[in-house]
Amino acid sequence: MKISLSVILILFFFNYSFSGDVNNDELISLAVENKYRKTNNKSRDKYRHPIETLSFFGLSREKKILEITPGRGWYTEILANYMRNTNNYYVAKYDPPQFAVDIITKIQNEFEKYFLKNENKFGKIKYISINQDYKIVSKKNEFDIVLTFRNSHNWLDRGKAEKIYSSIYRSMKKGGILGVVQHRADESSPFNYKGGYVKESFLINFIENQGFKLINKSEINSNLKDTKNYEKGVWTLPPTYRLGEKDKSKYSKIGESDRMTLKFIK
């Protein structure tokens, strides 16, 4: 997407901070195109469609936004940049981690160091905790938008999905939006979730049972090439390549997983 001269002049005038006079879709595009994102992260835009996904979820700088356990920060590089100077962007982290403790601790520590070091590029991030009971430590009715990308399979595998989704519900304002992206199993699968994949109908019913209501869904992140029958589950595909060099070219051609993109309201 080309950025108009008027947008460039507005950003320059406001010292590269975003102005409410700029179209929101342009603001999202600018955040996705920001030069500070890691090159390998940008290369995955073709699979994750961040502009379309964040627009679908109704991202807004005027709203208080919470991103749940962002891993190494693929979406954070975009969201933090988009939300900079608003004081409205929060990240929920495991405190303390309850599974894969060494790995999660390492990832979270590296995440915090990276975004603290690059605060002038991406903006300030506020943190809240997910405690040992998988409850979000926040005020009730605090957030306008909560986003979770590819986390649901972990919570389901550990029997903690009900706790965390009910805690997300508690943390959100009435009318707030929950955006969910998740690896999608075939509806004909003999399981509801396995190997990182989750049935869409199952997940919708599960989340609605916590009080939410599905208001829209999108095929933005679908991938018909994904056969979903791999030796190492979804992690066989990029970017993980759990099988190493074995059939790597084959999995590279498939690309990242087929994903559901769901929009709920409280």
Model description:
The protein is of the alpha/beta class. It has one domain: 3-Layer(aba) Sandwich (Rossmann fold), CATH 3.40.50.150. The chain is 36% helix and 20% strand. Strands 1, 2, 3, 4, 5, 6, 7, 8 and 9 form a 9-stranded mixed beta sheet that branches. A hairpin with a 2-residue loop joins β6 and β7. The two termini are 33 Å apart.
The unreliable regions are 5-20
Radius of gyration: 18 Å
H-E string: HHHHHEHEHHEEHHEEEHEHE
**CATH architectural grouping:** 3-Layer(aba) Sandwich
Specify the structural class: alpha/beta
CATH superfamily: Vaccinia Virus protein VP39
Counted up, domains total: 1
CATH topology: Rossmann fold
Please provide the count of β strands: 9
CATH first level: Alpha Beta
**Chain-averaged pLDDT:** 93
Which range does the strand content fall in?
15-25%
Distance between the termini: 33 Å
Major sheet details: 9 strands, mixed
Count of helix runs: 12
Based on CA inertia axes, which overall geometry fits? globular
Helix content: 25-40%
Give descriptors for this structure.
266 residues; alpha/beta; Rossmann fold; nine-stranded mixed beta sheet
